[in-house]
Amino acid sequence: MKINGVSLQNIRKIASLTLKLPQQTTVILGPNASGKTTIVEALALIATGESFRAGKIEEIISFDEELGRIKVVVADLADSESGTDEIEAVLTHGEVQGKKTAKRLFSVNNIRRRQKDVVGKFYSVVFRPEDMRLVEGSPGRRRSFLDTPLAALHQEYSRAAGEYEKVLRRRNKLLAQIRDGEQPKTTLEYWNLSLLKHGQVMQQHRRDLLQEFRQVKFPVNFLIEYQPSVISSERLVQYANREIAAGHTLIGPHKDDFYITISMEGEYRDIATYGSRGQQRLAVLWLKFCELQYAAAVLNDKPLLLLDDILSELDKDSKKLALAAVQDYQSLVTTIDEKVALEIAAQTTDSKIFRFVGSVLEEFK
């Protein structure tokens, strides 16, 4: 798989942009708020169907515009006869020219497709400064890290996670109604079965994913420990009264977490508690390596690597490892530092540097 190009129309501050990507490395150079991250966001949205920045998808559309467009041209290098696919996402506020419409409309070669049939055409691994908080940040951030590859690469997981979220909202409302005497406790039975069904699918996929991470070779020997909030019939009975009192569901995948350990003085210790800042950042880099290799194994193809202003966050050794990954995958790297841009480009035989001059992206020579 190779990404030949990406074009944006009315996406955030970018009115119109078309970018052809080389075989190996693209470097986007520019100051903060110039539009570098918008390009990364657009590529990741086509890969996963979701934005890593926007709370609501319509936030991506340029101000005062009805819709925005993102197109990505993907070539299948394993099958040169198949040519290329043009994947497009049209984003709206839910209404175009006075008519209601979906907020996300996907197509492949101008033929309308469902989102689930488009996601997975290619996969991207995004590494951003915000990811540095994966280790010591909230459990929700770590769950999101698990959900992103699983939902994009496994339709079974995507379906289960979507249904689980719906059931969870309905069950929480019902728990509050039971607490307030508006519903009998027996009404939980159906929703318990549904919560259990979808929750167990999610947790099994998460276990399998983290088990694969243990096989990844890395200069530092990290271990990852899954902490599932186990969901079972017995535990749902056990927690029923406490959940009714609380008015929400206390166990299940929405409470899962994981932690990373590193060998210290002959034993493995939680890196969030005992690790240095440098070790924590190296652990995040390891997680991204794990995601890259997992996606490559599932797809039997290399994903696109997107490094968004991350190199300045890494120490010398971590930066060296990140740049090595750039050589192994088709990559797009953003930076504010011209020296870093030239350093990256010098390490690959097929690379291009583009620079934002105002709102215009020009090739840097």
CATH first level of the domain at 1-122 and 303-365: Alpha Beta
Report the order of strands and helices. Answer: EEEHEEEEEEHEHHHEHEEHHEHEHEE
- The CATH homologous superfamily of the domain at 1-122 and 303-365 is called P-loop containing nucleotide triphosphate hydrolases
Structural class: alpha+beta
Radius of gyration: 22 Å
Helix residue percentage? 40-55%
Number of strands: 17
Q: Could you name the ranges where pLDDT drops below 50 across 5 or more consecutive residues? A: none
Largest sheet: 6 strands, antiparallel
What is the correct CATH architecture of the domain at 1-122 and 303-365?
3-Layer(aba) Sandwich
CATH topology (level 3) name of the domain at 1-122 and 303-365 = Rossmann fold
List the helices and strands and how they pair.
Blueprint: E1 2-11, E2 14-20, E3 25-29, H1 36-48, E4 67-75, E5 84-92, E6 95-96, E7 99-100, E8 104-108, E9 111-113, H2 115-118, E10 124-127, H3 139-153, H4 155-179, H5 188-213, E11 222-227, H6 233-246, E12 257-264, E13 267-270, H7 271-274, H8 277-299, E14 304-308, H9 316-328, E15 331-335, H10 338-346, E16 351-357, E17 360-363
Parallel strand pairs: 3-15, 3-16, 10-14, 14-15
Antiparallel strand pairs: 1-2, 1-4, 4-5, 5-8, 6-7, 8-9, 11-12, 12-13, 16-17
Helix pairs in contact: 3-4, 4-5, 4-6, 8-9
